[in-house]
Write a structure and sequence with these properties.
The protein has one helix and twelve strands, in the order αββββββββββββ. The protein is mainly beta. It has a single domain, classed as Immunoglobulin-like.
């Protein structure tokens, strides 16, 4: 009986340990030069806008990111680089915002430390005041002065950076927005 009790005790401890193993949090990756990277980068969940007609003023483009539990580091900064589109889209830096959750399920508002544009590189940079911890979903709202005049597909490369002084950005994917010329009716 003593052996059976010991066997079941050992089995319980081992199975509990194996169950908890995949749920443990990963550590960040530190490269040989000291640069910090995500163990598992955030994921670009969606890119959308409520107004897809051309020339609509003061619209917002929503980019939703999921920071996995296994990221190893919190999310500090996100860059958006327009890589395709007939014209360059200009964002309104002062009206950029972020919140926890998705466009359709908004949570608490998140403070932004800095919002910058690099017009030469056609890049828009958003830095969170407090880094976003692993396990969170966030949405960044980029306010535009207007939708493009020309219809078509506009693509934005999205890159995420962990917190720290020397970090490596990791490409998350491409946000795709499609704009349509409004239909005109003839009398």
């Amino acid at each position: 009986m003593k052996y059976v009790t010991n066997f079941f005790s050992t089995l319980f401890v081992v199975s509990t340990g194996l169950y908890l193993l995949p749920h443990s949090v990963a550590n960040a990756v530190t490269l040989s030069n000291g640069t910090i990277a995500f163990a598992q980068p955030p994921r670009l969940v969606s890119a959308s806008t409520p107004y897809s007609d051309t020339s609509v003023p003061n619209t917002t483009y929503y980019f939703t990111l999921e920071v996995p539990v296994t990221a190893g580091e919190p999310l500090q900064q996100v860059t958006f680089n327009q890589i395709e589109g007939t014209e360059d889209i200009e964002f309104n830096q002062k009206d950029t915002f972020a919140f926890e959750g998705t466009r359709n399920s908004q949570g608490s508002k998140l403070a932004l430390k800095a919002v910058k544009a690099d017009n030469k590189q056609q890049t828009f940079i958003v830095t969170f005041d407090t880094p976003i911890p692993p396990g969170k979903t966030v949405t960044i709202g980029l306010q535009t002065y207007r939708n493009p005049f020309y219809d078509g597909v506009y693509l934005f490369g999205v890159k995420a950076f962990p917190s720290g002084k020397q970090t490596a950005g990791q490409f998350l994917g491409i946000g795709r927005l499609q704009f349509y010329a409004p239909m005109t009716t003839e009398n």
